[in-house]
Specification:
This protein is mainly β. It is built from no helices and ten strands. It has strands at 6-9, 14-19, 21-23, 29-31, 38-45, 51-56, 62-66, 71-76, 92-99, 105-116. Strands 1-10-9-5-6 form a five-stranded mixed β-sheet, with no helix packed on it. A three-stranded antiparallel β-sheet has the order 2-8-7, with no helix packed on it. Strand 9 (92-99) and strand 10 form a beta hairpin. The radius of gyration is 15 Å and the shape is elongated. The termini are far apart.
Length: 121
């Protein structure tokens, strides 16, 4: 997938959903079955590789809603960003990885991440 930018307002809830589809032999889209897969999201500073946010299925911040349709939901709680230093996010990158029971690992989507200071205090 192409790079996508995540813009998160510090101290707020950030939820999103992904559906993994691939092109079939007829040129149409078909869902990727992720039954039994592990899905992880990380945001890291690209310069020093420091971990800014980590979300996983174990922490229930990543949920596979319908594995046969490749549907995943991600939840970043306000507590994950409320006291973060915006400067640390200057060169932040994010990525979602899917690990199959066979140990095959796919980088599903990735891109830049920005932490924005909110207006409401």
């Amino acid at each position: 997938m192409t790079d996508q930018t995540l813009s998160i307002v510090a101290g707020t809830t950030f939820d999103f959903e992904l559906i993994w589809e691939t092109q079939n032999v007829n040129g149409g889209l078909e869902a990727v079955d992720i039954t039994g897969c592990q899905v992880d999201l990380q945001i890291r500073n690209a310069v020093n590789d420091s971990l800014l946010i980590s979300c996983s299925m174990e922490t229930k911040e990543v949920t596979v809603i319908d594995p046969q349709s490749g549907t995943m939901q991600f939840h970043i709680a306000p507590s994950k960003t409320v006291n973060q230093d915006v400067a640390a996010w200057k060169d932040a990158r994010w990525e979602v990885r899917v690990t199959f029971p066979s140990d095959d690992v796919y980088s599903l989507v990735r891109g830049w991440a920005k932490l924005i200071i909110g207006v409401v205090k």
